[in-house]
């Protein structure tokens, strides 16, 4: 059984005969202790405070039966780890392989939710936002509450940031209103495509594991790095 905040994504699941429903990850309408396993992929890094991120982990633990397990993936601050660049950094903008992986959700870099459109760049409005110079996980919050805008396919310079997404042009589905459609990579498409900024908190090494260990109802079975993501496997006590 799957759940997501996006009704459109849940509708796609229904069309493919999967069981899914719309809900909030902080309040999942499933009975406590009723799940053998829970998976949270590319979700918790979208919560804007440490308290809400911890609450999302606690909600996963609530759903598990004793002995049940949960797998959590979040985007990592360290996109270069042990002298190896993540696939996210290696991908070239506009490459056919990158576009295919993004469209099919099979990217091995940051989870498919985390992989912006391959042609995305900082939006024209990014100069109106404060670009703080947080260079690591020990950086203190800046007084200016405005967030830096990330340049896609580059290393992170702040843990809290906005990632620009350019909505690609493409053929409209049957029944949708008509309009001029440009090729996704064309100049016209880049000029007319709306830009959305998605909030991310990228996790430093040990941060996700420490949050999980702060809960007395679970134990950390495994913590590891996987292609630009920090990952934890939990067991319900």
Give a short summary of the structure.
By secondary structure, this protein is an alpha/beta fold. The protein has helices spanning 7-15, 50-63, 87-90, 96-104, 187-192, 207-213; strands at residues 2-4, 20-22, 35-41, 64-75, 80-81, 84-85, 160-166, 195-201, 218-226, 229-236. The protein is built from six helices and ten strands, in the order E-H-E-E-H-E-E-E-H-H-E-H-E-H-E-E.
**Oligomer category:** single chain
Q: What is the overall pLDDT average?
A: 80
What is the strand arrangement across the widest sheet? 3-4-10-9
The secondary structure category is alpha/beta
Number of helices, counting only DSSP H or I runs of 4 residues or more: 6
Percent range for helical residues? 10-25%
Q: Which strand-content bin applies to the residues?
A: 25-35%
Q: What is the string of SSEs from the N terminus onward?
A: EHEEHEEEHHEHEHEE
Give the distance, in angstroms, between the N- and C-terminal Cα atoms: 23 Å
Which residues sit in consecutive blocks of at least 5 with pLDDT less than 50?
Answer: 95-109, 117-135, 170-184
- State the total count of DSSP E strands: 10
Query: What is the approximate shape?
Result: globular
What gyration radius follows from the Cα positions, in whole Å? 19 Å
Largest sheet: 4 strands, mixed
InterPro entries: AlkB_tRNA_MeTrf/Diox (IPR051422), Methyltransf_11 (IPR013216), SAM-dependent_MTases_sf (IPR029063)
Biased composition (Basic and acidic residues): 89-99, 128-143
Biased composition (Low complexity): 112-123
Domain Methyltransferase type: 1-72
């Amino acid at each position: 059984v799957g759940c997501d905040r996006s009704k459109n994504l849940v509708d796609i699941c229904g069309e493919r005969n999967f069981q899914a429903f719309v809900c909030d990850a902080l309040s999942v309408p499933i009975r406590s202790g009723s799940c053998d396993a829970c998976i949270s992929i590319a979700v918790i890094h979208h919560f804007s405070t440490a308290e809400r991120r911890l609450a999302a982990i606690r909600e996963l633990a609530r759903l598990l039966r004793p002995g049940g397990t949960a797998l959590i993936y979040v985007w990592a601050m360290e996109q270069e780890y042990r002298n190896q660049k993540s696939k996210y950094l290696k991908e070239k903008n506009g490459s056919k392989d990158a576009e295919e992986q993004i469209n099919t959700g099979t990217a091995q870099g940051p989870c498919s939710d985390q992989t912006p459109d391959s042609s995305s760049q900082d939006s024209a409005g990014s100069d109106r936002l404060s670009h703080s110079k947080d260079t690591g996980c020990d950086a203190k919050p800046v007084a200016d509450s405005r967030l830096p805008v990330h340049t896609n396919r580059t290393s992170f310079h702040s843990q809290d940031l906005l990632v620009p997404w350019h909505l690609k042009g493409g053929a409209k589905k049957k029944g949708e209103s008509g309009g001029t459609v440009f090729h996704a990579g064309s100049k016209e498409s880049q000029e007319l495509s709306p830009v959305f900024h998605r909030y991310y908190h990228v996790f430093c090494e040990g941060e996700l594991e420490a949050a999980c260990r702060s809960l007395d109802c679970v134990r950390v079975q495994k913590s590891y790095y996987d292609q630009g993501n920090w990952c934890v496997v939990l067991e319900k006590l």
